[in-house]
Amino acid sequence: MTKIPLHRVTARALPIDDQDRVLLLYGFDPARPEQPFWFTIGGAMEDGETLQEAAARELHEEVGIRASADDFTGPYGISTIEFCWAEYAITQDQTFFALWVGANAAVSFEHMEQIEKDTTTAHRWWSVEELESTQEAFFPEDLAVILRKVVAGGEFE
């Protein structure tokens, strides 16, 4: 089956708690539900949005945490990736921003789109050490490096 090509410019939000852990979501591609993975919060920019505004909107839509665009620091990484998801062959330009959240930031999937609710099954806070030692799949694969940069206060160069 031929995949539908899609190009997206995305903002990835990295909420960091008071223990220097990043919040990730766990889910799957509906075409491959047997291969779940951990992933960062975020999505495509909408017309008229800045990347930071997109990160703030996606953070609220995907995990129920409210923040303003000004709350984000970064960027901590910029890359272009290609992957397949459902019927799409996606080329994604992605920029990573971080924000510090409280120790007890409540996570809610209430505002997700239905397809996100159907394919996102869990969330978890991850430390650098846990990312470096896990055998579980997570994206981006260099997230531990990015998280170290966030915690150290060094923005993307």
From TrEMBL:
InterPro entries in the record: Nudix_hydrolase (IPR020476), NUDIX_hydrolase-like_dom_sf (IPR015797), NUDIX_hydrolase_CS (IPR020084), NUDIX_hydrolase_dom (IPR000086)
SUPFAM superfamilies: Nudix
Segments forming domain Nudix hydrolase: 5-149
Cofactor(s) the protein requires to work: Mg(2+)
UniProt xrefs under Gene3D superfamilies: Nucleoside Triphosphate Pyrophosphohydrolase
Keywords on record: Hydrolase, Magnesium
A matching Pfam family: NUDIX
Family: Belongs to the Nudix hydrolase family.
Entries under PANTHER family matching the protein: GDP-MANNOSE MANNOSYL HYDROLASE
Name this protein carries in UniProt: Nudix hydrolase domain-containing protein
Organism: Nonomuraea rosea
